[in-house]
Amino acid sequence: MIDFSRANKLIEQVEKVITNPKKVSKGSKIKVGVDLGTMYTVIVVCDENDTPICCKLRQTNVVRDGLVLDYIEARRIVAELKKEVEDAIGVELTQACIAVPPQTSESNSKTHKYVVEGAGMEVTSVQDEPTAANNVLQIQNGAVVDIGGGTTGTSVIQDGIVIHSDDDATGGMHCTYVIAGNFRIPFEEAELIKMDKSRELEVLTIVTPVIQKMAVIVEKHIQSYSVDSIVLCGGTACLKGIDQTIEKTIDIKTYKPHNPFLVTPMGIAMSCSAYTV
Question: Which residue of 117, 134, 148, 210 has the lowest C-beta tally within 10 Å?
Answer without folding.
Answer: 117
